[in-house]
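Hey team,

Filing this mostly as a record. A colleague (T.K.) asked me to run one chain through the structure pipeline before their review meeting, and I want the input and output archived in the tracker in case anyone asks later how it was produced. No errors, nothing strange. Just documentation.

Input sequence:
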Amino acid sequence: MEATIKGVRFDSRRHEYWYMGKHVPSVSEIVGLLSLTDKRWYKPWHCQRGSMIHWLTQCVDEGTTDSDEVESVYAGYLKAYEQFLREHELHYDLTETPMVNPQYLFAGTPDRIGTLDGEHMILDIKSGYPSDDHALQLGGYWILVGEYFRRKIVLYLRSNGTYSILYKDLKQHDDYPALFLTALFCYHQKHGKPLVQFIKSLNEKKGVAI
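Output structure:
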């Protein structure tokens, strides 16, 4: 079942998702449960940098950013994104749009959904270096959005103005979607909300018998 944006409420201050009045976990929460990457070296400014770069790239897409006026610390990342746009044919259908998978009851906000060089894709923008968590995110977003988007792409922007792309073609039997679903079940169990009971409560609210 593909994602829906209907009935989803996202609290940006707390980074919490709600669906039909009930809290649902996010992709990042589920990925964090497995902790595949050592977070000890992470600094608060890493998150700040990522948020700023996401905002700046969205401004570029909307045509509201002048690269000459961007702070020098972010100028290289912005240059890298602009180079990426020049070198590829892109069309975005959705940008930073909160959505939920009503079958598995988890939510997320893919950075971009659309086409890249004529292929349907989900695009994630990163300012750090590749990690195991990113691969798990690939599986999570593929399940969130649906099989129609067979290509999941991670765009790594560098401070020196260069970029790299990680392509991942996902199939249902691949390890990452299965691992993500395992983490999802563990999340609901850990928080005392077995997934079957949670789905049943939502279906009852919608008047659906299971």
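Quick notes for T.K.: Strands lie at 8-11, 16-19, 22-24, 90-95, 99-101, 106-108, 112-116, 119-126, 151-157, 163-169. The mean pLDDT is 80.
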